[in-house]
Amino acid sequence: MSDKKIIFFDIDGTLLDDDKKMPLTAEKAVFALKEQGHEVAIATGRAPFMFKEIREQLEIDSYVSFNGQYVVLRGEVVATNPLNREALQAMTDLALTHNHAIVYMDHANMKANIPNDELVEKSVQTFKAKLSVGYDPLYFQGRDIYQTLLMCTVEEEPFYEAVFKAFDFVRWHPSSVDVVPHAGSKAMGIREITSRLGIADENQYAFGDGLNDVEMLTAVHNSVAMGNGCDEAKAAAKMVTKRADEDGILYGLQKLGLL
Predict the structure, then answer these.
(1) What Pfam families does the record point to (predicted)?
(2) pTM for this structure?
């Protein structure tokens, strides 16, 4: 086992604040960690094409994306876990009867099954990035889809959960839930990377803030929830730092003794 440390960072609400801005202290902290010889990686619910600029800005080429379903180590894809195609077809058929739009996402693109859907536009706008959702109702056929966005309310969500046991539903927006393979999580993706690098449990660190970070914050030995994080994330983490917009990344790394 190596003595090298690895630090995983979530993006939204962690590296980026509520305005989708990255504090300068967070950027500098990432480079300081790398200068010390540590591995730095991203663990996010986003698709790879949704954080390419952030990877380039921070010079990071290892990441867990789609909440663990598409894992890249030093630029090489090392693990994938696509959605079950039959179950996805069935969910598509059911969602259409309720006029619930679905956005299908693979590693390179995202397409909606309903054109110009208002809820799709509204939820994707929260990323405050130049993201366009094309229209292709058959995009999921014949290709690996790692995650979908399902447009439904909190009240409607349990209906889908009861029917589709092959999937997990993780809410990230009032109008939208992430749909991922059952038991697929950032924690699983992190294990793929740490096992390949031979990094001991006690040298693994993770920062996160959301519901989709709970498994990661529970599993990783040294886990940190952001001050702006949800209650579930804070309960799962070993430590709580300041808010993202209050230099929470730097503060947390200092408290851990990494910087």
Answers:
(1) Hydrolase_3 (PF08282)
(2) 0.93
